[in-house]
Amino acid sequence: MNSPVPVFQRVLLKLSGEALMGSQGFGIDAPTVERIALEVADNHGLGVQLALVIGGGNIFRGLAASASGTDRVAGDHMGMLATVINSLALQDALEKRGVQTRVMSAIEMRAVAEPYIRRRAVRHLEKGRVVIIAAGTGNPFFTTDSAAALRAMEVKADVLLKATRVDGVYSADPEKDPGAVRFEKLTYLEILERGLKVMDATAVSLCMDNNMPIIVFNLNRPGNIRRVILGEKVGTSVGR
Q: Are strands 236-239 and 10-15 parallel, antiparallel or unpaired?
């Protein structure tokens, strides 16, 4: 029996921090991290080169903190550190499954992670290691969505996969508006002009300028990452 052939060879997977908290209202839910690690390991087994960028909103959100009086730069730095905690949690879960993993941080902290160096990240991918890129871009005022777009370009990924809680991009928030319509395909300009909440405008613009395709899909449906990588029509695809 022939094994399935992935349509993408190198993938940048963007996970929100909220994805790690499961049904909890805060923090890291161990069974949820295990489930995500199992899916990542499953796709790694297909021979796909996988890089991940994880948000930190389950622990700390810089923008929300600045709204309540925290200095925006300090708040964003705290949010970046939260992404490192999430990255280490996922690394631990992956390595328990025998998947070699490297955490690379945009903020240098050699005791817990390698510094993010593009060429080294690419080399890890070529050697079959999963690379988890932490601390966003290392700069305040940039979201982890923008970091995901930037890193996807830097490591020359074939696609940017944005994992969410819903099965694609909708005309409105489907969790609040039952009349929201799901799009199967969108252009970058349609997202920007309609103000659709897929990724922030900086991330979408960066992908548009560099022709980086985006696929938005539901992480909570088991097997979805694999379906996307094998070329099935899942979620919403974004391109020119």
A: unpaired
Helical spans, DSSP H, in the chain:
30-44, 62-67, 72-96, 118-126, 144-154, 188-194, 201-209, 224-229
pLDDT beyond 90 at 64: no
Residue indicated by tokens 């930037």: 150
Give yes or no for residue 50 having a pLDDT over 60: yes
197 confidence band (pLDDT: 50, 70, 90): confident
Which value, in Å, is the radius of gyration of the alpha carbons in the chain? 17
Q: What is the DSSP string of 148-210?
A: HHHHHHHTT-SEEEEEESSSSEESS-TTT-TT--EESEEEHHHHHHHT-SSS-HHHHHHHHHT
CATH 3.40.1160.10 for the 10-239 domain, yes or no: yes
Task: Enumerate the β-bridge partners of residue 238.
Answer: 186, 214
Q: Does the pLDDT at position 4 exceed 80?
A: yes
One-letter amino acid of 39: E
Which residues are within 8 A (CB) of 67 and not within 5 positions of it... i.e. 6 or more apart? none
Distance CA 28, CA 90 (A): 10
Contacts of 214 by beta carbon, 8 Å cutoff, 6+ apart:
159, 160, 161, 162, 198, 199, 204, 207, 237, 238, 239
